[in-house]
Amino acid sequence: MAISHTGLRPEPGSFRDPANRVFHFGDDVLRGLDAQAAQEWRALAGTDFFPALLAAGKVCGTEPADPALLPAGDGWAGALRHERIPFVSHPYEWSFSMLRDAALLHLEILRTALPGGFTTKDGSAYNLQWRGAEPVFIDVGSFTPLRDGEPWAGYRQFCQTLLYPLLLGAHLDLDFQPWLRARVDGIDADQMRRLFGGARRLRPGVLTHVHLHGAMQNRHAGTSTADTRDRLRDAGYSRELALATVRGIEKLVRRLDRPATASHWSAYQRTCGYSAGDRAAKEAFVAGALAATPHARLVLDLGANDGRYARLAARHADYVVAVEQDPAVVDELYRALRADGERRVLPLVMDLADPSPGGGWRGVERAGFADRAAADVVLALAVVHHLAIGRNVPLPEVVDFLAGLCAPGARVVVEFVHPDDPMARRLLANKPDGLFPDYRREEFERLLGARGRIERRLELPSGTRTLYAVVVGG
Q1: pTM for this model (two decimals)
Q2: DSSP states of 37-83 as a string?
């Protein structure tokens, strides 16, 4: 029987390796394999190490599929079906500890594959995703048989998208997220050398992986991979040496850390001015709105801070993405979620006034945040006043932004902080008088009503904050 390919969509971020490509078909994630890749997959599936990685959940769930599911004209000789990652994120949305744990998993997988006669073609941070606070390797097409004398082809990518960002955070106390967001290929060695001159070059990992690596790149520019492999093999480069190199990088990455620093947002739950009555009423309202959504696949918690409401949402939903602007706060939340073994809450670093745009080739290789978010519930608690007053975003634009993150018929649970609330007054004190004449509860309710149906509202006991549950488009 002929198979209809209607609805089959190529993954825009999967095109750099012509040997295999990812497609979406409904909830299925399929990978097409050319003849060589299909042969290598059969060899990989027959090893001892790969099924063990699958069973441990360190590689995304993978099974053979019927190549007829894919377009016949593309010449795919084999196909795989992968588990669907609940929410795809990008490395510039991760905290320091998240990036480090992703790097360690990448190295563990390579270290496990080498004795089994395999390596990975790539070393990119984009080869990893998350099940909550658990990293998972997704690029099964990256595994390839190891040839004698061959260096790790993914080393440069690993440095640029994983190791170098970690060095920025650990040694210079710099946030790496803007650097990775600016270039899809990561930070190159020439940039790093300028930052790590003088005594800084003696910091752990810098001399070997920045200065010497950069010098070797320049020296061997234009040299073919085959020539490099032959020279290394003749020099005695072996599988054992490759394994020792990976272990050395793993030891370095494990030692890298960025000490936690106090910030305004890390103390927000203690300074935001909620009374015990306010907190209890707010939690009950949010829980009621979540319970009214019978099967919430995805909840977005915008301005998640310490994750109080993200954890609450996880009791009612399949998956929760907790978005917070401060990398230090996200890192603290991630560590707590990881310690609890939480696999349904994903913390991400993101400025809601400057959310992740589309990036990479043609602006679609890495999808923007709004394009990935079709949420069943959006929690926007104590967020609106920061956008509308703190960042001068017009109130109608804020409401449109929240509604635009929703699937059809979804709920938005939003908190409006009145102009006379202490937090709003603090923000308004730094603004010219009369700058926000429309920042009023009545206007906010009108805007909500124009985009959906307000099914519930609650003024908190303090009298200066109101909660709304809105069915978008209802």
Answers
A1: 0.93
A2: HHHHHHHHHTSSHHHHHHHTTSB--EEEE-GGGS-GGGT-SEEEEEP
Q: Are strands 20-25 and 62-65 parallel, antiparallel or unpaired?
A: unpaired
CA atoms within 13 A of residue 207's CA, in its CB half-sphere: 6
pLDDT tens per residue across span 390-403: 999 999 999 999 99
CB atoms within 10 A of CB 455: 13
| Amino acid present at 41 | W
d(CA 173, CA 263): 14
Cα-to-chain-centroid distance, residue 457: 33
CB 403 within 8 A of CB 438: no
In angstroms and rounded to an integer, the radius of gyration of the C-alpha atoms of the chain is 25
**Contact at 8 Å (CB) between 208 and 214?**
no
Strand partners, 145: 118
In contact, 474 and 409? CB cutoff 8 Å: yes
Tokens (6 digits) for 279: 């907190």
Distance CA 360, CA 350 (A): 18
Summarised one tens digit per residue, pLDDT across range 349-387 is 999 999 999 999 999 999 999 999 999 999 999 999 999
Among candidate residues 375, 387, 274, the one with its CA nearest the CA of residue 325:
387
Q: Where are the beta strands (DSSP E) in 190-329?
A: 296-302, 317-324
Q: Residue 30 — φ and ψ, nearest 5°?
A: -115, 150
Q: SS3 helix, strand, coil % of the chain, rounded to 5?
A: 45, 20, 35
Q: Which segments within 285-419 are labelled E, that is strand?
A: 296-302, 317-324, 345-349, 375-380, 406-417
- CA angle (469, 473, 474) in 5-degree steps: 65
Cα–Cα distance measured from residue 293 to residue 318, given in angstroms and rounded to the nearest whole number = 12
